[in-house]
């Protein structure tokens, strides 16, 4: 994936056009139409149409959440391996205390600033957003969906 510009805290969020700008709007309109029809022509079939559209929306959102959770688990593993290589031998026992949220934020830190930022994240209990704002040399993650 070729980035169009350098990734920063301000532009690192990603949108999947098919999901965010097609699927979700189509499902939202479908829900509105099915509720409208159900209210104006109440029957078991129109009520079932509302239930079905809600089930499809839940399926789409759950599938998205499952994919993001798998990505978070992979990021957690990658960052633990990276920390094991970059953190001085006197500190690795402390790094296991980093939360998943903190590890996800640390993925954007360059190798040079990772050990110090990880120690600071532990000491100050920084959130993911605070960690990302603290990164000086941004390491882009172009693969996140």
Q: How many beta strands in the DSSP annotation? A: 0
Structural domain count: 1
The rounded distance between the terminal residues' Cα atoms is 12 Å
- N-to-C order of helices and strands: HHHHHH
Low-confidence stretches: none
| Biggest sheet architecture | none
Mean pLDDT: 90
Question: Residue share in helices?
Answer: 55-70%
**Which structural class fits the helix and strand makeup?**
mainly alpha
Alpha plus pi helix count:
6
Give the C-alpha Rg.
21 Å
The proportion of strand residues reads: under 5%
Which outline best applies? elongated
Could you give a short description of this structure?
By secondary structure, this protein is mainly alpha-helical. Helices cover 66% and strands 0% of the residues. The relative contact order is 0.13.
Task: Describe the secondary-structure layout.
Blueprint: H1 17-40, H2 44-86, H3 92-95, H4 100-106, H5 114-124, H6 128-134
Helix pairs in contact: 1-2, 2-4, 4-6
Description:
It is built from 6 helices and no strands. Helix 4 runs parallel beside helix 6 (128-134). The protein has one domain (17-134). It has helices at residues 17-40, 44-86, 92-95, 100-106, 114-124, 128-134. The chain is elongated, with a radius of gyration of 21 Å. The model has no long low-confidence stretch (mean pLDDT 90). The chain is mostly helical.
């Amino acid at each position: 994936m070729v980035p169009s510009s350098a990734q920063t805290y301000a532009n690192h969020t990603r949108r999947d056009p098919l999901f965010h700008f097609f699927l979700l709007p189509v499902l939202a309109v479908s829900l509105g139409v099915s509720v409208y029809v159900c209210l104006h022509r109440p029957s078991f079939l129109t009520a079932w149409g509302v239930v079905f559209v809600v089930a499809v929306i839940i399926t789409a959102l759950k599938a998205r959440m499952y994919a993001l959770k798998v990505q978070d688990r992979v990021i957690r593993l990658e960052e633990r391996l990276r920390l094991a290589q970059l953190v001085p031998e006197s500190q690795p026992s402390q790094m296991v205390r980093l939360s998943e949220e903190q590890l996800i934020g640390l993925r954007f830190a360059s190798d040079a600033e990772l050990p110090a930022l990880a120690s600071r994240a532990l000491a100050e209990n920084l959130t993911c957003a605070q960690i990302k704002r603290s990164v000086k040399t941004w390491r882009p993650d172009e693969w996140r969906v």
